[in-house]
Write a structure and sequence with these properties.
- With about 110 residues, this protein is of the alpha+beta class.
- It is about 10% helix and about 20% strand.
- Strands 1-2-3-4 form a four-stranded antiparallel sheet, with no helix packed on it.
- It binds zinc ion.
């Protein structure tokens, strides 16, 4: 599985909160596979790939708002998280450091 490399400079330019020791990942709703950007270092879940000011803290005491894709009131990150090809095809493709598509040669 190819590692996902993030364009943190662009995320910062677009208003994402970065701390320098960011643990970024793309996570998906376990119900509908809708994708979110997550920074585990800051517990930030970004809801809208076009507006990074819309982010919420994922901490035990606070429920996340309903899934913006399927409306589920209680939802969890899917396991495993989306793979690179799914991220490339999804709304968060712009956060990838490389837009070069990879192909699975090991069929
Ligand atoms: Zn969902």
């Amino acid at each position: 599985m190819a590692a996902i490399v993030f364009n943190t400079a662009l995320i910062g330019q677009r208003g994402g909160n970065l701390c320098g020791e960011d643990e970024l990942s793309i996570e998906a709703c376990s119900s509908c596979q809708g994708q979110y950007l997550f920074n585990a270092a800051l517990k930030d879940v970004y809801y809208d790939s076009a507006d990074l000011s819309r982010h919420f803290f994922k901490i035990p005491a606070i429920d996340l708002p309903p899934c913006r894709y399927c409306g589920a009131l209680q939802w969890q990150f899917a396991t495993p998280a989306p793979e690179l090809a799914q991220v490339q095809a999804g709304p968060w493709a712009w956060v990838l450091a490389s837009r070069v598509f990879t192909f699975d040669a090991e069929a």
